[in-house]
Amino acid sequence: MADARMSRRRNLAFQRGLSLVELLVGFAVALFVVIGSIALLVDQLRDSRRLLLEARVHQDLRAAADLITRDLRRAGYWQHAPAGGANPYEEVATAGPETAASVRYSFSRDALENDSVDVAEATGFRLGGDALQTLNGGSWQAMTDPGTVRITHFSISPRVSVVPLGQFCMPACAVGAADCPVLSLRSYVIELRGRSATDAAVQREIRQTVRVRNDALPIGSCPAPAT
Questions:
Q1: pLDDT single digits (tens) 189-209
Q2: Torsion over CA: 100, 105, 109, 115 (sign)
Q3: DSSP character at residue 119
Q4: Phi and psi dihedrals of 37, rounded to 5?
Q5: Measured between alpha carbons, how far is 118 from 110 in angstroms, rounded to an integer?
Q6: Chain centroid to CA 145: how far?
């Protein structure tokens, strides 16, 4: 009988549940695990959102810079250039400061060349407010959406290399001499910076160089030979 009672007591001890202390410790451990998981999830969501905003800003800046590059490359195109003479489309005008930078130029779009710059042939780009604008048909139109990306910086800097042509004159002439021809090779450095409209900490910058295909040719001819 005594052995049966001892066996029953041992069975009851083995079937006893968790104490209050053990239960609280278990809850605390589970709570720490849940908090850590939530913090990790929040960090991942924050990083994903930031990467998405960075990609969107970079993509918009890249698209704008590529558009400027492709269009500016055509500056100075003139159908009658092979015939020589003063090119009415030759000028490329840049202005600042960075908060209101602009570039204006033109190229021939006439079905039948009239040797003059029409409204539809004058174009350009500028920074207006938080948007990059393009000149189209005589009016400025926004080409970027400030509700997505705000353009904070736009600059376009000319880089001109002069190639002397005096050696082709008869007689040859030196650079700087009166009527001594030179060829101007024109390139422009485009810089764009922008930030996300919803997160000012997300910023990106694009910098690229474009060479104008139509070189600035000299006006006039070689110096007259001495008599």
A1: 999 999 999 888 899 999 999
A2: positive
A3: G
A4: -65, -40
A5: 9
A6: 13
